[in-house]
């Protein structure tokens, strides 16, 4: 009798341990599933939040622009920031008279010649240069300068000028809202480089050397 009771007790203990082990395993599996679901939901939520709070790219008021043309085998290329009038007083206001002006916005305006050129009778070697001006009420000074890597005319030095040309500005028939450069090739195999803004225009001629 004792033997039978002892055997039944062992069977009951084994059965109880197996039942506990199965329950623990089931709970562990469910726990993993819950964590996986929570992570997935958090990932989706994070993506939604990221998209909702992403700032919109602002439109710049003075975008970079280019003007270019081929003159025979030569190539002339101008890179500049193009501000707009936006109901402001430009000459003698935003742009001071009788002071060096970057002739554009942000970085200095640059002009590149693929081959040697002649401007106002002076030879200029192929390369990349800065283009500055000194606006005046009656006459402008156009400047080609060695240092094109600068903000506006912050680091301008007259000793780095390659050439200065005096020109008389002309009045436009209709206002030019956004500053604009043009490089126009003529029948003579030359190029006329011009800057137009508000009601004013200045230009100079470039010849191949």
Automatic annotation (TrEMBL):
<protein>
    <submittedName>
        <fullName>Lipoprotein, putative</fullName>
    </submittedName>
</protein>
<keyword id="KW-0732">Signal</keyword>
<dbReference type="InterPro" id="IPR021314">
    <property type="entry name" value="DUF2911"/>
</dbReference>
<dbReference type="Pfam" id="PF11138">
    <property type="entry name" value="DUF2911"/>
</dbReference>
<feature type="region of interest" description="Disordered">
    <location>
        <begin position="40"/>
        <end position="64"/>
    </location>
</feature>
<feature type="signal peptide">
    <location>
        <begin position="1"/>
        <end position="19"/>
    </location>
</feature>
<keyword id="KW-0449">Lipoprotein</keyword>
């Amino acid at each position: 009798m004792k033997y039978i009771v002892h055997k039944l007790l062992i069977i009951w203990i084994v059965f109880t341990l197996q039942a506990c082990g199965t329950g623990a395993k089931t709970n562990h599996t469910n726990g993993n599933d819950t964590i996986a679901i929570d992570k997935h939901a958090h990932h989706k939520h994070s993506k939604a939040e990221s998209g909702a709070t992403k700032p919109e790219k602002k439109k710049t008021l003075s975008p970079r622009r280019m003007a270019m043309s081929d003159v025979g085998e030569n190539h002339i290329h101008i890179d500049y920031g193009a501000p707009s009038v936006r109901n402001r007083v430009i000459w003698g206001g935003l742009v001071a008279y009788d002071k060096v002006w970057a002739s554009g916005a942000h970085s200095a305006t640059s002009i590149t010649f693929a081959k040697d050129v002649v401007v106002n009778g002076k030879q200029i070697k192929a390369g990349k240069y800065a283009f500055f001006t000194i606006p005046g009420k009656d006459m402008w000074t156009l400047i080609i300068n060695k240092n094109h890597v600068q903000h506006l005319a912050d680091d301008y030095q007259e000793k780095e000028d390659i050439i200065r040309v005096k020109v008389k500005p002309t009045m436009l028939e209709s206002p030019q809202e956004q500053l604009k450069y043009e490089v126009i090739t003529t029948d003579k195999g030359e190029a006329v480089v011009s800057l137009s803004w508000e009601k004013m225009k200045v230009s100079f001629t470039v010849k191949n050397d």
